[in-house]
Design a protein that fits this description.
single chain, about 260 residues, alpha/beta, Rossmann fold, 12 helices, about 40% helix, globular, binds adenosine-5'-triphosphate, binds magnesium ion
Length: about 260
């Protein structure tokens, strides 16, 4: 695992260095398999609308990288975080969740919104905010009472962040949170946990220490290296293990002939 983390870090460094050179390619309309107008789900969730699109392929690569970690015993519980706000954590969590759920063996996937301050998973899915993690951790609801699905992806389950509590960090560091994760592990093959940014609040470090590892989302062209380094130090101090990095806001330049075969 140590070697993989090092390799992923090196790859991220290399890619950060190349970003300036990369320019955008237009997605082809004929690849769209679900019309966005038919759903309330946000168009950013491209793995739902268009699993064959170039961007969806990137989420599939992320899925493959995760599933091939640790010699056939891949991490099952993952926290998704970033250094600062709006780097693409929730969009990444949702796309990865759909991508995992679409795998051939149809694994049972759970996406938990643990951003109890301003959770947006439900909003991206176009559903009204629901009771969720804060009610579960404060003992007002059983987990099973708050889980929900969207119609055409029955093996993908969601839990909202719930109402904004007074003490999100305390709720997340509670025994109830550990017990919740253990209970979910017996029901799901993969559990993704979307969290707030680590530089702002400790939440992702707290939950990161309870799971197999943390995926760091980095918005290319905005978040400075020093900030990412500080974020990783904070996660390390919280005993969270960073397994890999996802760069968002990258534009692709691929020659037309390569694109045809993707
Ligand atoms: N891979 C990506 N490439 C380009 N833009 C992206 C990508 N992923 C997300 N975004 C854009 O970044 C913005 C923020 O996305 P998102 O809500 O996922 O961020 P976040 O890190 O969860 O924010 P917050 O800190 O508020 O929870 C959105 O407008 C989204 O369109
Ligand atoms: Mg978010």
């Amino acid at each position: 695992m140590g070697k993989i983390t090092k390799a992923l870090k090196k790859a991220t460094e290399d890619r950060l260095g190349r970003i300036e050179k990369i320019t955008k390619i237009k997605e082809r309309d004929q690849l769209i398999v679900k019309k966005i107008g038919e759903s309330e789900i946000d168009p950013n969730i491209v793995s739902y609308f268009d699993p064959k699109a170039l961007i969806s392929e990137q989420y599939k690569i992320l899925r493959t990288n995760i599933l091939s970690m640790n010699k056939g015993r891949p991490p099952r519980t993952l926290v998704i975080t970033s250094s600062i706000h709006s780097e693409g954590k929730t969009v990444t969590s949702l796309n990865l969740a759909f991508s995992l759920a679409q795998a051939v063996h149809k694994p049972r996937v759970l996406l938990v919104d643990a951003d109890m301050r301003k959770g947006k998973v439900s909003r991206y899915l176009g559903v009204d905010n629901k009771e969720g993690l804060s009610e579960v951790l404060s003992g007002q609801r059983k987990a099973s009472e708050t889980l929900f699905h969207i119609a055409d992806q029955p093996n993908l389950t969601f839990m909202d962040s719930g109402s904004v509590p007074e003490n999100p960090s305390e709720l997340l560091s509670s025994n109830e949170m550990k017990e919740f994760i253990t209970e979910m592990e017996s029901n799901y093959d993969h559990i993704l946990i979307d969290t707030p940014p680590i530089i702002s609040v400790t939440d992702s470090g707290i939950v990161g220490a309870m799971v197999d590892g943390v995926i760091m989302v980095i918005q290319a062209g905005r978040t400075q290296r020093g900030i990412v380094k500080r974020a990783e130090e904070l996660l390390f101090q919280a005993h969270s293990k960073v397994l890999g990095h996802v760069l968002t806001n990258i534009e692709y330049h691929l020659p037309e002939y390569i694109y045809r075969y993707l």
